[in-house]
Amino acid sequence: MSEIAVPTVGALTLDPTQTEWTEPQTAALAQLGIANAPRGDQLVFLHQAQKTGLDPFAKQLYMISRWDSQSGGHKFTIQAGIDGLRVIAERTGRYEGRTPIQWCGEDGVWRNVWLDAKRPPVAARCAVYKKGFREPLEGVAHYSEFVQTKKGGDPTHMWATKGVHMLGKVAEALALRAAFPQDLSGIYTPEEVGEEESTAAAGGPGQTIAESVAAEYSQPSGEPMVSSAQLSEIAGRLKDLGMGKDAALELYAEVAGREVPVTRLLTEKEADAVLEELVERAKPAAEPPETNEDGVVDAHIVEDEPASADEADALWPEVAQPGSAR
Whole-structure pTM over 0.90, yes or no? Predict the structure, then answer.
Protein backbone atom coordinates (compact mmCIF):
# COMPACT_ATOMS: atom_id res chain seq x y z
CA MET A 1 0.00 0.00 0.00
CA SER A 2 1.38 3.41 -0.95
CA GLU A 3 2.17 5.95 1.74
CA ILE A 4 -0.66 8.34 2.63
CA ALA A 5 0.20 12.01 2.90
CA VAL A 6 -1.21 13.40 6.14
CA PRO A 7 -1.57 17.16 6.76
CA THR A 8 0.43 18.49 9.70
CA VAL A 9 -1.86 21.36 10.74
CA GLY A 10 -5.11 21.54 12.65
CA ALA A 11 -6.13 20.44 16.13
CA LEU A 12 -8.15 17.54 14.70
CA THR A 13 -5.48 16.28 12.30
CA LEU A 14 -4.77 12.57 12.73
CA ASP A 15 -1.17 11.58 13.45
CA PRO A 16 -0.32 8.19 11.89
CA THR A 17 1.59 7.31 15.07
CA GLN A 18 -1.02 8.26 17.68
CA THR A 19 -2.56 5.40 19.66
CA GLU A 20 -5.37 7.31 21.38
CA TRP A 21 -7.78 10.06 20.41
CA THR A 22 -6.50 13.45 21.55
CA GLU A 23 -8.60 15.73 23.77
CA PRO A 24 -9.74 18.00 20.87
CA GLN A 25 -10.54 14.93 18.76
CA THR A 26 -12.54 13.41 21.62
CA ALA A 27 -14.54 16.63 21.89
CA ALA A 28 -15.25 16.46 18.16
CA LEU A 29 -16.34 12.84 18.49
CA ALA A 30 -18.87 14.01 21.06
CA GLN A 31 -20.32 16.35 18.46
CA LEU A 32 -20.62 13.39 16.09
CA GLY A 33 -22.52 11.49 18.77
CA ILE A 34 -20.07 8.63 19.26
CA ALA A 35 -18.20 9.76 22.36
CA ASN A 36 -20.10 7.15 24.40
CA ALA A 37 -19.12 4.28 22.13
CA PRO A 38 -17.07 1.55 23.83
CA ARG A 39 -13.37 2.39 23.99
CA GLY A 40 -12.53 -0.64 21.87
CA ASP A 41 -14.84 0.53 19.07
CA GLN A 42 -13.35 4.01 19.22
CA LEU A 43 -9.82 2.61 18.90
CA VAL A 44 -10.89 0.49 15.92
CA PHE A 45 -12.36 3.62 14.37
CA LEU A 46 -9.04 5.45 14.93
CA HIS A 47 -7.16 2.55 13.36
CA GLN A 48 -9.38 2.53 10.26
CA ALA A 49 -9.08 6.30 9.87
CA GLN A 50 -5.28 6.07 10.03
CA LYS A 51 -5.14 3.08 7.70
CA THR A 52 -7.44 4.51 5.05
CA GLY A 53 -6.38 8.14 5.30
CA LEU A 54 -10.04 9.22 5.34
CA ASP A 55 -10.94 12.10 7.66
CA PRO A 56 -13.81 11.31 10.08
CA PHE A 57 -14.11 15.00 10.99
CA ALA A 58 -14.62 15.92 7.34
CA LYS A 59 -17.36 13.24 7.16
CA GLN A 60 -15.34 10.96 4.89
CA LEU A 61 -15.54 8.07 7.36
CA TYR A 62 -18.32 7.29 9.83
CA MET A 63 -19.07 5.06 12.80
CA ILE A 64 -22.74 4.15 13.10
CA SER A 65 -24.54 2.70 16.13
CA ARG A 66 -27.21 0.15 15.22
CA TRP A 67 -29.50 -2.01 17.34
CA ASP A 68 -28.80 -5.71 16.95
CA SER A 69 -31.89 -7.77 17.80
CA GLN A 70 -29.95 -11.01 18.10
CA SER A 71 -27.54 -9.75 20.76
CA GLY A 72 -30.06 -7.38 22.32
CA GLY A 73 -27.60 -4.50 22.28
CA HIS A 74 -25.97 -1.87 20.11
CA LYS A 75 -23.26 -2.63 17.60
CA PHE A 76 -21.02 -0.17 15.81
CA THR A 77 -20.10 -0.39 12.14
CA ILE A 78 -17.66 1.77 10.20
CA GLN A 79 -18.97 3.26 6.97
CA ALA A 80 -17.77 5.34 4.06
CA GLY A 81 -19.48 6.60 0.93
CA ILE A 82 -18.70 4.86 -2.36
CA ASP A 83 -16.37 7.76 -3.26
CA GLY A 84 -14.38 7.05 -0.10
CA LEU A 85 -13.95 3.41 -1.11
CA ARG A 86 -12.76 4.50 -4.55
CA VAL A 87 -10.22 6.87 -2.99
CA ILE A 88 -8.86 4.08 -0.79
CA ALA A 89 -8.58 1.73 -3.77
CA GLU A 90 -6.83 4.39 -5.85
CA ARG A 91 -4.29 5.04 -3.10
CA THR A 92 -3.17 1.43 -3.10
CA GLY A 93 -1.55 1.97 -6.50
CA ARG A 94 -3.01 -1.35 -7.73
CA TYR A 95 -6.47 -0.19 -8.78
CA GLU A 96 -6.92 -0.26 -12.57
CA GLY A 97 -10.56 0.70 -12.95
CA ARG A 98 -13.79 -1.25 -13.07
CA THR A 99 -16.25 -2.66 -15.56
CA PRO A 100 -19.52 -0.83 -16.31
CA ILE A 101 -22.25 -1.71 -13.82
CA GLN A 102 -24.87 -4.08 -15.22
CA TRP A 103 -28.36 -5.07 -14.05
CA CYS A 104 -30.53 -8.09 -14.74
CA GLY A 105 -34.16 -9.06 -14.30
CA GLU A 106 -35.77 -12.41 -13.63
CA ASP A 107 -34.77 -13.52 -17.14
CA GLY A 108 -31.09 -13.48 -16.11
CA VAL A 109 -30.06 -11.26 -19.03
CA TRP A 110 -27.48 -8.63 -18.05
CA ARG A 111 -28.09 -5.09 -19.33
CA ASN A 112 -25.92 -1.97 -19.26
CA VAL A 113 -28.97 0.23 -18.69
CA TRP A 114 -32.09 -0.65 -16.68
CA LEU A 115 -35.16 0.86 -18.37
CA ASP A 116 -38.04 -0.78 -16.53
CA ALA A 117 -39.38 2.03 -14.34
CA LYS A 118 -42.13 -0.16 -12.87
CA ARG A 119 -39.95 -2.97 -11.53
CA PRO A 120 -36.52 -2.88 -9.88
CA PRO A 121 -33.74 -5.13 -11.17
CA VAL A 122 -33.23 -8.49 -9.52
CA ALA A 123 -29.46 -8.05 -9.28
CA ALA A 124 -26.55 -5.80 -10.22
CA ARG A 125 -22.92 -6.67 -10.87
CA CYS A 126 -19.61 -4.87 -11.17
CA ALA A 127 -16.01 -6.08 -11.50
CA VAL A 128 -12.78 -4.36 -10.42
CA TYR A 129 -9.42 -4.69 -12.18
CA LYS A 130 -6.41 -5.07 -9.89
CA LYS A 131 -2.77 -5.03 -10.94
CA GLY A 132 -1.27 -8.52 -10.77
CA PHE A 133 -4.60 -10.36 -11.11
CA ARG A 134 -5.46 -12.27 -14.27
CA GLU A 135 -9.22 -11.80 -14.01
CA PRO A 136 -11.28 -8.90 -12.61
CA LEU A 137 -12.82 -9.43 -9.18
CA GLU A 138 -16.60 -9.30 -9.38
CA GLY A 139 -19.29 -8.28 -6.93
CA VAL A 140 -22.93 -9.30 -7.40
CA ALA A 141 -25.67 -7.65 -5.34
CA HIS A 142 -29.19 -9.10 -5.15
CA TYR A 143 -31.97 -6.58 -4.71
CA SER A 144 -33.86 -8.75 -2.21
CA GLU A 145 -30.80 -8.92 0.05
CA PHE A 146 -29.93 -5.23 0.14
CA VAL A 147 -33.14 -3.25 -0.40
CA GLN A 148 -33.81 -1.16 2.70
CA THR A 149 -37.40 -1.07 3.89
CA LYS A 150 -39.55 0.76 6.39
CA LYS A 151 -41.34 -0.99 9.22
CA GLY A 152 -44.32 -1.65 6.96
CA GLY A 153 -42.13 -3.42 4.40
CA ASP A 154 -42.15 -0.72 1.71
CA PRO A 155 -38.79 0.42 0.31
CA THR A 156 -37.32 3.56 1.87
CA HIS A 157 -37.52 6.77 -0.13
CA MET A 158 -34.09 6.40 -1.74
CA TRP A 159 -34.62 2.74 -2.66
CA ALA A 160 -38.10 3.47 -4.00
CA THR A 161 -36.92 6.34 -6.20
CA LYS A 162 -33.29 5.40 -6.99
CA GLY A 163 -33.18 1.65 -6.43
CA VAL A 164 -31.21 0.98 -9.62
CA HIS A 165 -28.50 3.47 -8.63
CA MET A 166 -28.39 2.22 -5.03
CA LEU A 167 -28.05 -1.43 -6.06
CA GLY A 168 -25.29 -0.50 -8.49
CA LYS A 169 -23.30 1.16 -5.71
CA VAL A 170 -23.65 -1.95 -3.56
CA ALA A 171 -22.29 -4.12 -6.38
CA GLU A 172 -19.31 -1.79 -6.85
CA ALA A 173 -18.63 -1.74 -3.10
CA LEU A 174 -18.65 -5.54 -3.00
CA ALA A 175 -16.22 -5.68 -5.91
CA LEU A 176 -13.88 -3.10 -4.36
CA ARG A 177 -13.83 -4.99 -1.07
CA ALA A 178 -13.12 -8.28 -2.88
CA ALA A 179 -10.19 -6.63 -4.67
CA PHE A 180 -8.77 -4.80 -1.67
CA PRO A 181 -9.76 -6.75 1.47
CA GLN A 182 -6.78 -5.51 3.49
CA ASP A 183 -7.70 -1.88 2.94
CA LEU A 184 -11.50 -2.11 3.00
CA SER A 185 -12.17 -4.91 5.46
CA GLY A 186 -14.71 -3.76 8.03
CA ILE A 187 -15.72 -0.61 6.11
CA TYR A 188 -19.17 -0.64 4.54
CA THR A 189 -21.32 1.83 2.64
CA PRO A 190 -24.73 2.91 3.99
CA GLU A 191 -26.34 1.16 1.00
CA GLU A 192 -24.96 -2.16 2.29
CA VAL A 193 -25.97 -1.99 5.95
CA GLY A 194 -29.04 0.23 5.93
CA GLU A 195 -28.86 3.51 7.79
CA GLU A 196 -32.63 3.31 8.35
CA GLU A 197 -31.91 0.84 11.15
CA SER A 198 -29.61 3.27 12.93
CA THR A 199 -30.44 3.88 16.57
CA ALA A 200 -30.57 7.59 15.85
CA ALA A 201 -34.29 8.23 15.62
CA ALA A 202 -35.40 11.54 14.19
CA GLY A 203 -36.00 13.98 16.98
CA GLY A 204 -35.09 11.46 19.65
CA PRO A 205 -32.18 10.87 22.02
CA GLY A 206 -29.01 9.68 20.33
CA GLN A 207 -29.90 11.56 17.16
CA THR A 208 -26.39 12.91 16.82
CA ILE A 209 -25.10 9.42 16.04
CA ALA A 210 -26.74 9.60 12.66
CA GLU A 211 -24.54 12.52 11.66
CA SER A 212 -22.64 9.62 10.14
CA VAL A 213 -24.42 9.21 6.83
CA ALA A 214 -23.41 8.73 3.24
CA ALA A 215 -21.47 11.58 1.65
CA GLU A 216 -24.20 12.13 -0.89
CA TYR A 217 -26.61 12.94 1.93
CA SER A 218 -24.45 15.67 3.45
CA GLN A 219 -25.75 19.19 3.89
CA PRO A 220 -25.68 21.76 1.07
CA SER A 221 -22.31 23.50 1.27
CA GLY A 222 -22.17 27.03 2.61
CA GLU A 223 -25.64 27.06 4.14
CA PRO A 224 -26.13 27.48 7.90
CA MET A 225 -27.35 24.30 9.52
CA VAL A 226 -30.21 23.65 11.91
CA SER A 227 -29.65 25.25 15.32
CA SER A 228 -29.89 23.57 18.72
CA ALA A 229 -33.06 25.55 19.45
CA GLN A 230 -34.63 24.36 16.20
CA LEU A 231 -33.63 20.75 16.93
CA SER A 232 -35.25 20.93 20.34
CA GLU A 233 -38.46 22.46 18.99
CA ILE A 234 -38.70 19.95 16.14
CA ALA A 235 -38.20 17.07 18.56
CA GLY A 236 -40.93 18.40 20.86
CA ARG A 237 -43.43 18.96 18.08
CA LEU A 238 -42.76 15.51 16.57
CA LYS A 239 -43.41 13.99 19.97
CA ASP A 240 -46.62 16.00 20.50
CA LEU A 241 -47.93 14.87 17.11
CA GLY A 242 -46.94 11.26 17.77
CA MET A 243 -44.86 11.14 14.58
CA GLY A 244 -42.40 8.27 14.32
CA LYS A 245 -39.08 8.22 12.52
CA ASP A 246 -40.41 7.17 9.11
CA ALA A 247 -43.09 9.89 9.12
CA ALA A 248 -40.55 12.51 10.19
CA LEU A 249 -38.07 11.56 7.45
CA GLU A 250 -40.83 11.65 4.84
CA LEU A 251 -41.72 15.14 6.03
CA TYR A 252 -38.07 16.26 5.79
CA ALA A 253 -37.78 14.93 2.22
CA GLU A 254 -41.05 16.59 1.24
CA VAL A 255 -40.06 19.98 2.65
CA ALA A 256 -36.38 19.95 1.62
CA GLY A 257 -36.85 18.35 -1.80
CA ARG A 258 -33.96 15.98 -1.04
CA GLU A 259 -33.20 12.97 1.14
CA VAL A 260 -32.53 14.06 4.73
CA PRO A 261 -31.80 10.90 6.78
CA VAL A 262 -31.37 12.70 10.13
CA THR A 263 -32.68 15.94 11.60
CA ARG A 264 -29.18 17.42 12.02
CA LEU A 265 -28.71 17.46 8.25
CA LEU A 266 -31.50 20.00 7.77
CA THR A 267 -30.39 23.50 6.89
CA GLU A 268 -31.62 26.42 8.97
CA LYS A 269 -34.16 27.39 6.29
CA GLU A 270 -35.34 23.81 5.89
CA ALA A 271 -35.77 23.50 9.66
CA ASP A 272 -37.92 26.65 9.66
CA ALA A 273 -40.06 25.14 6.89
CA VAL A 274 -40.38 21.87 8.81
CA LEU A 275 -41.47 23.76 11.92
CA GLU A 276 -44.06 25.70 9.93
CA GLU A 277 -45.49 22.44 8.60
CA LEU A 278 -45.53 20.88 12.06
CA VAL A 279 -47.37 23.92 13.42
CA GLU A 280 -49.95 23.59 10.63
CA ARG A 281 -50.44 19.91 11.37
CA ALA A 282 -50.95 20.66 15.05
CA LYS A 283 -53.84 23.02 14.36
CA PRO A 284 -57.24 21.49 15.18
CA ALA A 285 -59.52 20.78 12.27
CA ALA A 286 -62.18 23.46 11.77
CA GLU A 287 -65.53 22.37 13.18
CA PRO A 288 -68.51 22.55 10.76
CA PRO A 289 -70.95 25.41 11.47
CA GLU A 290 -74.06 24.61 13.47
CA THR A 291 -77.27 24.21 11.47
CA ASN A 292 -80.92 24.21 12.49
CA GLU A 293 -83.49 21.53 11.65
CA ASP A 294 -83.92 22.95 8.13
CA GLY A 295 -80.21 22.72 7.48
CA VAL A 296 -79.74 26.48 7.64
CA VAL A 297 -76.58 27.74 9.31
CA ASP A 298 -77.31 29.39 12.63
CA ALA A 299 -75.86 32.89 12.85
CA HIS A 300 -75.74 35.55 15.53
CA ILE A 301 -75.39 39.28 14.93
CA VAL A 302 -72.94 40.79 17.36
CA GLU A 303 -72.53 44.53 17.77
CA ASP A 304 -68.94 45.61 17.26
CA GLU A 305 -67.55 47.26 20.36
CA PRO A 306 -64.52 49.52 20.36
CA ALA A 307 -61.41 47.88 21.69
CA SER A 308 -60.09 49.14 24.98
CA ALA A 309 -56.68 50.71 25.15
CA ASP A 310 -55.19 47.59 26.68
CA GLU A 311 -56.74 45.41 23.98
CA ALA A 312 -55.44 47.70 21.27
CA ASP A 313 -51.95 47.57 22.71
CA ALA A 314 -52.11 43.77 22.61
CA LEU A 315 -53.57 43.55 19.12
CA TRP A 316 -51.63 46.30 17.38
CA PRO A 317 -48.48 47.00 19.38
CA GLU A 318 -46.74 48.55 16.41
CA VAL A 319 -49.35 51.32 16.04
CA ALA A 320 -50.86 51.71 19.52
CA GLN A 321 -48.21 53.96 20.99
CA PRO A 322 -48.67 55.55 24.43
CA GLY A 323 -50.58 58.82 24.19
CA SER A 324 -51.66 58.29 20.56
CA ALA A 325 -55.28 58.69 19.50
CA ARG A 326 -57.24 55.51 18.99
Answer: no
